[in-house]
Design a protein that fits this description.
The protein is α+β, with helices and mostly antiparallel strands. It is built from two helices and six strands; from the N terminus they run αββαββββ. Residues 1-17 form the signal peptide. Keywords: Signal.
Length: 114
Amino acid sequence: MLFFACCFALIAASAAAQDDYRAVLGNEAGVFPGAEFKRVIRFPKAATVIFETGASPAEVSAFYAKDVTSRGWKVEVNDVTDGASFLLAVKNGRRLTVEAQRGLPGRTGLNVTL
């Protein structure tokens, strides 16, 4: 019985983490299609949501440039190389950044910070 209680607690914690990152992103940024959620890091005035994907940094940057523009953000920087990308957008005095970098073969880590 204790085993099932522990399993339920882990599932509930995982669901809470899913809700947590959705609360951080809200209506300000989407989730890259197929990205795997890793964790949320909270700062006093911002939060970073960390994902991992099999897509390239260029694909991540292209997605977010289109996504955040459709949500009213103005893209000010969109630097892309083969191994990494950095996007900076602004709206109403706020900043949104998306960083993506190739890591393990075939994997890209991506951070969305609001």
